[in-house]
C-alpha cells in the first residue's frame, strides 16, 4: 500500500521522529512506521498527536535539534497545521523535515478537495508529487535530503490513489543517521521579530530560486516520455494522473503520437524545462489533479489547454473514465484521433431502471452513538443540532445532525448560533455533538471560549474511547500511545471542568431512558438564570475496538406480533440488524449483526421490541 | 500476461483479503502488481471495491469496459460494477442462481459475450461451517470452472500463504470444496 511505502521511505531515510493526527487517506502511515520500528528494532519516536498543528510542531522541534522528522496528515489537516507551516518556511529547519499531506480528490472521505500543492506554493516550500507508491517511497528519501540541504520544510503531496494504491515495491536498506539532539540557540532566527522576518523572507525567496534550479536539472522525477514519431501534441502531467494517462495511451496505442512531460516537482515548477517543452509542440495539454498548480505557474499559456481553458473538469477525481473523455475531446479537437465513445450507455440505462437503492453508510449495529442520537431526538426534537467530523457525522441519517463544518465546529457553531438568536432575545434549544478524539483535537479552545462568552447550549460528547472513523487510533483519553505503550491518560471530565463548565454529567448512552431525562435537565440548566453550558459525556466503548467490554451486559431482544410493519424503527433508528421481512410485513432481527445492546426496545412506538 | 480484476461487495465480505490473494498471486506468477481499494466507510456497511492489475501497468485504476474478471460478493454491488467488464469478460457473482439476475441485463451481457456465473458462495460457506469464507469460495469456484486464467494450485498456494494460522484449515477446505464445485459445474456427470 502507498502509505506503507511512504512509511518505508521515512524509515529508510533514517528519520528519528514521526508524528501525525489520523485522517483518510493518511492514517496507515504511522501504524506502518510502528511496524518497521518493531521489526527492525529502531529507536524512532512515534506520536499520535492531539491535532495536526501539535504534530507539526513536535516534529519541527526535533528538526531544530538536528534530527530528521516527518509529520503526516490528510489534506484538511494541513489547514490546521498551516500556521506552523507558513512560519517555519521562513525560519527553516536544521534536520530534514518532511510534511506528508495526503489529498482526497473525489472527495471520498473529506470535506474539501483542496490541493496541498497550493499550500506548498502559498507557504513557499518545495513539493514532491509521486505517481506511484514506489515513487512516493523514493521521493520521501530525497525530500529529507533536499530539506537538509536547503534547510527548508518539504512537502510530499500524496493523493488517495497513491496512498491507497497497491504496488509491488522494491525496498532498500535502512539508513542509520546518527544524530544527538543539539539545539543551537539563535533567537534572531527561531524567535524572529517582524524586522528579521523580512530578512528571512528574502532568504526564503533565494532558497526557492536555488531549488527551482535544481528541479530544472532533475531528471529523476521530471522527465519526458517521448513519442516514436513527430508529435504535435504534448501533455504535461504528474501524480497519479500520469499513471492513469499512460495506461490509457498504451491501451489505445497512442503512445507513439504524443510526447509526455512528467513533472514530479510541481513547486517550484522547473519553468525553463516546461517552456522548452511547450515551445516544441503545437498544443500542450496540462493534466493534473486536483487543481491547476502546474498550469498556473506556466508563464506563456498561449498554447496551453487545461483546466483554465475548460478542457479539464474543475472538480472531482481524474479517474480513468474522466481522463478518457478529456483525451477524446482534445484529440478530436486537434484532429489527431477520433476515439470511440467510452462506456456502455445501454447497460447503464438498464441498471438505472432497476432503481437499486444507494447503500448509504450507517453506524454499526449496537453503536452507542446511535443510542445517544436517538435520545437527543427524543428529548429535544426541535433543537438545532451542530455536529462534527467522525463516525457520528452519520447521525445525519437519524436527522440529529444539522451542521458538519470541520474539526471542532460542533461547539463553535453552537456558541455562534446561541449568540445570533440570543441577540434577538430568542431562546432556542441547541445540541452540539462531538466525539472524544475531536474534542481533544480542537474542542477545548471552542468550549472555553463558549463558556467565557456566556453561550448556552447542551454539548454531548460521545466518548467511545478511540478515534473510530479513521481506523481505531488511540486518543489522550484512551491512555495508549502510538506504539501501543502506556501513556498518561487524560480525564475528559476534568478537561471539560477545566474549560469552566459547571454542569457535567456522565452516562452510558445505552441507558436511553435516563439519557433522555438528563438531556431535558441539561436543557433546563441552559435556561436557568445562573445556568450555562451543560455537558453530557455519553460514554460507551466502541464495539469494533473493544468487542468484549462494550458487550458486557447483553440484553437479548425479540420482536413480537405487535409489530405491524410500520417501519418507524427502520426510519428513525436505522440499525443494520433490523430489517423488513416483506413477505410477513414485519420487522425482524438479523442475528448475525445484532450485538444485544437492547437499545431498540426504545425505538418501537408499538412496544413490539421486548427483552427476551 | 495482463489481467485486470475488479472485486466488489460491502464491508465485512473480505474484499480486501481477496485483493491480497490476487496481489500475492501476481507476485508468485512473477507479474507486476498494481491495484487500489476504495473503502472509506466500509466498516459502516458501505460499498467496497478493489481493482487489481497484474502485468505491466502504470496506474492502479481500471477503466470502464476494460476489466477481464469481476468478482461480486453481493448482488446489488454487481449491478454497480458490471460496467467495468470488457466485451468477452467474465463475472462471478455470489448469488443462488443466474435466474435471480435481471433478464434484460443478462441478454445484454450475452450480446457482449460476457459470461456471468452465479454461485451461492454464502450458502456453500455456511454449509462447510464458516460464512466468512464465502469470498474464498467464489474465487475457488471461478478457478474450478476454468473460465479464468489462473491455476487452482497457484491460488491454493497463495491462499495458504496469506491466511492466518487459525483460519488456514477452514480457508483451504472452503477453497478445495469450491474448486470441485466449479469443476463439476463444467463437467456434470
What is the element layout, followed by pairings?
The complex is a heterodimer of chains A (612) and B (189).
Chain A: H1 2-12, E1 17-20, H2 29-40, E2 45-48, H3 52-64, E3 69-74, H4 75-91, E4 97-103, H5 116-123, E5 127-128, H6 133-150, E6 154-159, H7 160-163, E7 165-167, H8 187-190, H9 194-217, E8 223-225, E9 233-237, H10 239-251, E10 258-262, H11 271-279, E11 283-287, H12 293-297, E12 304-305, H13 320-333, H14 345-353, H15 368-379, E13 384-387, E14 403-404, H16 409-422, E15 430-435, H17 436-452, E16 458-463, H18 492-498, E17 503-507, H19 512-527, E18 534-539, E19 557-559, H20 568-572, E20 578-581, E21 586-589, E22 609-611
Helix pairs in contact in A: 1-2, 1-6, 3-4, 4-5, 15-19, 16-17, 17-18
Chain B: E1 3-10, H1 15-28, E2 33-38, E3 47-54, E4 67-72, H2 75-81, E5 85-94, H3 103-111, E6 115-119, H4 121-128, H5 134-145, H6 152-162, H7 165-186
Parallel strand pairs in B: 1-4, 4-5, 5-6
Antiparallel strand pairs in B: 1-3, 2-3
Helix pairs in contact in B: 1-6, 4-5, 4-7, 5-7, 6-7
Short characterization:
The complex is a heterodimer of chains A (612) and B (189). Chain A is α/β, with parallel strands linked by helices.
CATH topology title of the largest domain in chain A:
Rossmann fold
| CATH architecture designation of chain B | 3-Layer(aba) Sandwich
- CATH H-level superfamily of the largest domain in chain A: Thiamin diphosphate (ThDP)-binding fold, Pyr/PP domains
In terms of per-residue confidence, which ranges of chain B show pLDDT below 50 for 5 or more consecutive residues? Answer: none
N-C termini distance of chain A: 46 Å
CATH topology of chain B: Pyruvate-ferredoxin Oxidoreductase, domain 3
Beta strand % of chain A: 15-25%
Report the CATH superfamily of chain B.
Answer: Pyruvate-ferredoxin oxidoreductase, PFOR, domain III
Biggest chain-to-chain interface with counts:
A-B, 47 and 41 residues
Could you give the distance between the termini of chain B? Answer: 33 Å
Largest sheet of chain B: 6 strands, mixed
What is the CATH-assigned architecture of the largest domain in chain A? 3-Layer(aba) Sandwich
Largest sheet of chain A: 6 strands, parallel
CATH class of the largest domain in chain A: Alpha Beta
The radius of gyration over CA of chain A amounts to 27 Å
Main sheet of chain A: which strands, in order across? 2-1-3-4-6-5
Helix proportion range of chain B: 40-55%
Oligomer: heterodimer
Tell me the number of structural domains of chain A: 4
The CATH top-level class label of chain B: Alpha Beta
Backbone structural class of chain B = alpha/beta
Amino acid at each position: 500500500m502507498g502509505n506503507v511505502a511512504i512509511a518505508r521511505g521515512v524509515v529508510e531515510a533514517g528519520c528519528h521522529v514521526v508524528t501525525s493526527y489520523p485522517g483518510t487517506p493518511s492514517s496507515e502511515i504511522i501504524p506502518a512506521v510502528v511496524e518497521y520500528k518493531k521489526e527492525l528494532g529502531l529507536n524512532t519516536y512515534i506520536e499520535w498527536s492531539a491535532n495536526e498543528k501539535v504534530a507539526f510542531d513536535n516534529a519541527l522541534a526535533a528538526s531544530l535539534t538536528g534530527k530528521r522528522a516527518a509529520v503526516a496528515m490528510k489534506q484538511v489537516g494541513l489547514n490546521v497545521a498551516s500556521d506552523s507551516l507558513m512560519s517555519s518556511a521562513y525560519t527553516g529547519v536544521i534536520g530534514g523535515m518532511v510534511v506528508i499531506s495526503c489529498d482526497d480528490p473525489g472527495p471520498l472521505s473529506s470535506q474539501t478537495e483542496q490541493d496541498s500543492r497550493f499550500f506548498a506554493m502559498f507557504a513557499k516550500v518545495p513539493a514532491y508529487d509521486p505517481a506511484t507508491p514506489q515513487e512516493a517511497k523514493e521521493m520521501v528519501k530525497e525530500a529529507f535530503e533536499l530539506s537538509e540541504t536547503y534547510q527548508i520544510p518539504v512537502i510530499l503531496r500524496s493523493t488517495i490513489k497513491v496512498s491507497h494504491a497497491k504496488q509491488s515495491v522494491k525496498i532498500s536498506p535502512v539508513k542509520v543517521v546518527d544524530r544527538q539532539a543539539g539545539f543551537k540557540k539563535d533567537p534572531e532566527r527561531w524567535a524572529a521579530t517582524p524586522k528579521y522576518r523580512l530578512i528571512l523572507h528574502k532568504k526564503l525567496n533565494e532558497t526557492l530560486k536555488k531549488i527551482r534550479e535544481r528541479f530544472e536539472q532533475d531528471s529523476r522525477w521530471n522527465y519526458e516520455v517521448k513519442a516514436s514519431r513527430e508529435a504535435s501534441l504534448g501533455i504535461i502531467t504528474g501524480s497519479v494522473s500520469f499513471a492513469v494517462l499512460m495506461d490509457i495511451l498504451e491501451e489505445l496505442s497512442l503512445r507513439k503520437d504524443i510526447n509526455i512531460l512528467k513533472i514530479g516537482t510541481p513547486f517550484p515548477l522547473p519553468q525553463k524545462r516546461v517552456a522548452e517543452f511547450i515551445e516544441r509542440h503545437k498544443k500542450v495539454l496540462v493534466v493534473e489533479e486536483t487543481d491547476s498548480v502546474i498550469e498556473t505557474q506556466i508563464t506563456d499559456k498561449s498554447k496551453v489547454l487545461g483546466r483554465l481553458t475548460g478542457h479539464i473538469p474543475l472538480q472531482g477525481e481524474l479517474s480513468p473514465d474522466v481522463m478518457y473523455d478529456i483525451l477524446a475531446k482534445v484529440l478530436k479537437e486537434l484532429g489527431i484521433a477520433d476515439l470511440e465513445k467510452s462506456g456502455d450507455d445501454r447497460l447503464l440505462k438498464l441498471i438505472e431502471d432497476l432503481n437499486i437503492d444507494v447503500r448509504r453508510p450507517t453506524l454499526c449495529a449496537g453503536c452507542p452513538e446511535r443510542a445517544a442520537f436517538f435520545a437527543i431526538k427524543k428529548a429535544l426534537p426541535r433543537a438545532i443540532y451542530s455536529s462534527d467530523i467522525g463516525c457520528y457525522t452519520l447521525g445525519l441519517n437519524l436527522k440529529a445532525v444539522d451542521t458538519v463544518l470541520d474539526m471542532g465546529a460542533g461547539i463553535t457553531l453552537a456558541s455562534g448560533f446561541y449568540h445570533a438568536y440570543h441577540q434577538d432575545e430568542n431562546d432556542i434549544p441547541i445540541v452540539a455533538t462531538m466525539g472524544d478524539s475531536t474534542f481533544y483535537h480542537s474542542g477545548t479552545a471552542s468550549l472555553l471560549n463558549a463558556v467565557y462568552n456566556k453561550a448556552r447550549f447542551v454539548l454531548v460528547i460521545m466518548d467511545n474511547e478511540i478515534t473510530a472513523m479513521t481506523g481505531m487510533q488511540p486518543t489522550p483519553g484512551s491512555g495508549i500511545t502510538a506504539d501501543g505503550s502506556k501513556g498518561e491518560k487524560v480525564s475528559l471530565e476534568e478537561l471539560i471542568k477545566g474549560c469552566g463548565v459547571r454542569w457535567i454529567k456522565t452516562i452510558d448512552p445505552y441507558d436511553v431512558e435516563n439519557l433522555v431525562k438528563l438531556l431535558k435537565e441539561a436543557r433546563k440548566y441552559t435556561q436557568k438564570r445562573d445556568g450555562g453550558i451543560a455537558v453530557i459525556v455519553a460514554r460507551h466503548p466502541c464495539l469494533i475496538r473493544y468487542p468484549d467490554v462494550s458487550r458486557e451486559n447483553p440484553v437479548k431482544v425479540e420482536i413480537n406480533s405487535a409489530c405491524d410493519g410500520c417501519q418507524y424503527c427502520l426510519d428513525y433508528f436505522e440499525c443494520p440488524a433490523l430489517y423488513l421481512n416483506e413477505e410477513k410485513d414485519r420487522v425482524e432481527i438479523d442475528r448475525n449483526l445484532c450485538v444485544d445492546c437492547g437499545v431498540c426496545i426504545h425505538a418501537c412506538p408499538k412496544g413490539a421490541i421486548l427483552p427476551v | 500476461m495482463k489481467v485486470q480484476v475488479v472485486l466488489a461487495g460491502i464491508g465485512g465480505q473480505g474484499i480486501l483479503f481477496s485483493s491480497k490473494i490476487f496481489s500475492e498471486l501476481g507476485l508468485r506468477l512473477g507479474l507486476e502488481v498494481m491495484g487500489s481499494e476504495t473503502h472509506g466507510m466500509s466498516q459502516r456497511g458501505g460499498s467496497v471495491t478493489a481493482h487489481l492489475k497484474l502485468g505491466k501497468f502504470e496506474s492502479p485504476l481500471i477503466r470502464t469496459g476494460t476489466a477481464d474478471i469481476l468478482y461480486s460478493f453481493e448482488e446489488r454491488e454487481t449491478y454497480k460494477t458490471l460496467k467495468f467488464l470488457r466485451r468477452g469478460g467474465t463475472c462471478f457473482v455470489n448469488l443462488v442462481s443466474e435466474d435471480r439476475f435481471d433478464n434484460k441485463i443478462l441478454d445484454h451481457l450475452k450480446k457482449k459475450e460476457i459470461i456471468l456465473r452465479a454461485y451461492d458462495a454464502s450458502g456453500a460457506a455456511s454449509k462447510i461451517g464458516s460464512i466468512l469464507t464465502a469470498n474464498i469460495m467464489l474465487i475457488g469456484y471461478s478457478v474450478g470452472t476454468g473460465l479464468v486464467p489462473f491455476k487452482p494450485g497457484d491460488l491454493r498456494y497463495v491462499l495458504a500463504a496469506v491466511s492466518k494460522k487459525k483460519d488456514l484449515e477452514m480457508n483451504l477446505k472452503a477453497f478445495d470444496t469450491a474448486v470441485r464445485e466449479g469443476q463439476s459445474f463444467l463437467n456434470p456427470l
